[in-house]
Amino acid sequence: MRINSKVIYITLIIVILLLVTNNTSYYWYTKSLLTEALSMRMESTANQIRTSIELSEEGSFFVEDLVGEKLRAVALFAASKLDPDADKVSNEQLVQLAKQAGVDGFSLMKRSGVGNDIMVAKSSEPKELQIKSTIPFGYWFTAFDQLMTNHQVSIPEGQKLPNFWSGIYEVPASGSSNVSKFGYYYDGSTNYIICVFVNADKIQRFKEIVGADTVVKKTLAANQDILEISGLHGVTFGSKPIEYKGNDGSSFISVYDRPLLFGSYNITNDKDLKYYKESIENNKPVSVVESWNGKPILKTFMYVPVKNKLTEIQREVPYVISITSDYQSIQETLNKQLVQLMLVVVLFTVCSCIFIYFVFRFITKSRETAVQSTQEMYIQNVDLMFATIRSQRHDFLNHVQTMYALLANGKKEDQMKYMKELLEEINEVNDIIRIGHPAIAALIQAKFALAMRTKIDFTYEFTGLDGLALGVKSVDLVKIIGNLIDNAFDEVNKFPAGEREVIVNGWSESNQVTISVSNPVLPDFQVEDYNQMFSIGYSTKGDGEHQGLGLSVVKERIEHYKGTIEVCVEDGWICFKISIPMQ
């Protein structure tokens, strides 16, 4: 029997599909793990940047506090040098005073007669004199009004000291400098607020040394796979920020309203705003893989909300840290792993094919052995059956001559009796064919022929065996039944010819095949013999075939199929009853 090539091909295709599915799943799982690991590293980097920026901001706020305290001291110095009436103080006098105090300028602010406004009356900086109203300044005007009314400021913004208030460093509305720090003093002894201001380049310089941009530069230098870090304003990014108008008509944006607070934002994508908003709405990091200039990149957006104020002058704003990293390294790692994986897969596939081939060879060989065993036993039994038929045909002429002689001599009754016996013998042999199971039928037919030759009264009855599966189970059934019958034949051959009787019954029910073989035993049959009869090598027979093996084979095959065997001795008869589940 050859291996079924179709089965081999189908099995091979199934194995290949399983391998492809497994390897594809492994590839994407590995990719997701690497991407997740890179995302977590970017989140960790973003957290480190956030912590560094918070510490930097805390330091810069502390510096602003120190500058504010210096501005108050300078304002007290100016109050001791200036006339309490602003009309009696000249702009030139304020210029000289600024030089003496080592600041960039002074302004005197007083109430106007229109709408309770507060405006600049005198200043060492000509552009400051162009400010006609401070009402549009928002909380700055509220601070001026509280200072002139209560000599103390109570709004939460800014730095508050006795008779003094200082706002954050900011772009001056007058446009006199890029960024300045202003302080305001009023104790009620004058009719004006003393405004002293300095250029905030020192604060900016401090932020350049330890601030967010420096943190970004150091982070980029330490992580070669990070391409860009951006600090995106949590409110104004993606929308047009508020523009303020200076006295000269030029527009400017507040330091704290700039869409890009720190870092750079050159690697852009149309979906950045979507992921930026998603990180804010969910307050969770968002990581996405995109393509930029033909290469893969990973962008991570991490929202940093406003915390409790670190100092009184802090005007903290929420922002989103965007980190763009090179995804090419992950892709290269995956490609390397994929090549290695493919080599392993090819090797495993070849080994699997060889293994499957040998498995099929083994199965086929086992099937061939089983079929050969069945065929040999079947052919042996069929040969025995044909031998019986040939014997009948050989004796046919003798039978005809005998019947002719009886008829010629007028012995009609003897002739009828002889013909009846002959017909019964022929019918008994023919009845075997109707058992319903070819292998068992051949076995019974062979044993029946043997019983006829050895003068054994052999009776049988089989029901419900139609449709039982052929194969190894049929071989084992023949082994079991054949050995039981052989054992019974050997036992009854100890009796005279007229007392030799063997009864075989077989039926199937509840998915089980049950066979019983009964025969008489000699009076000296002992129970201990019964207890030992299934042992290998045990036999009550003399020289001959099957000594000590038949019943042990029966027991081994029944146990193999998880069947049962019962033996009972009663009234001089022994009965073997076996039940085997059919699978």
Number of strands: 18
Which structural category fits the helices and strands?
A: alpha+beta
> In terms of per-residue confidence, which ranges show pLDDT below 50 for 5 or more consecutive residues?
310-314
Q: Give the end-to-end Cα distance, rounded to a whole number of Å.
A: 24 Å
Question: What is the radius of gyration computed over CA atoms, rounded to a whole number of angstroms?
Answer: 56 Å
What kind of assembly state do the chains in view correspond to? single chain
Spatial sequence of strands, sheet with the most strands: 2-1-6-5-4-3
What is the helix tally?
Answer: 13
Global morphology:
rod-shaped
The main sheet comes to:
6 strands, antiparallel
Which percent bin holds the helix content? 40-55%
Mean pLDDT: 78
Portion in beta strands: 15-25%
Pfam families: HATPase_c_5, SPOB_a
Keywords: ATP-binding, Kinase, Membrane, Nucleotide-binding, Phosphoprotein, Transferase, Transmembrane, Transmembrane helix, Two-component regulatory system
Protein name: GHKL domain-containing protein
Organism: Paenibacillus anseongense
Which helices and strands, and how do they pair?
Blueprint: H1 5-81, H2 91-101, E1 105-111, E2 118-123, H3 139-150, E3 159-161, E4 164-166, E5 180-185, E6 193-199, H4 201-210, H5 212-222, E7 226-233, E8 244-245, E9 251-252, E10 260-263, H6 272-282, E11 286-292, E12 295-304, E13 319-326, H7 328-394, H8 396-408, H9 412-431, H10 438-453, E14 457-463, H11 472-492, E15 501-509, E16 512-520, H12 527-532, H13 550-560, E17 564-570, E18 573-581
Parallel strand pairs: 14-15
Antiparallel strand pairs: 1-2, 1-6, 3-4, 4-5, 5-6, 7-10, 7-13, 8-9, 11-12, 12-13, 15-16, 16-18, 17-18
Transmembrane segments: 7-29, 338-360
Protein name: GHKL domain-containing protein
Keywords: ATP-binding, Kinase, Membrane, Nucleotide-binding, Phosphoprotein, Transferase, Transmembrane, Transmembrane helix, Two-component regulatory system
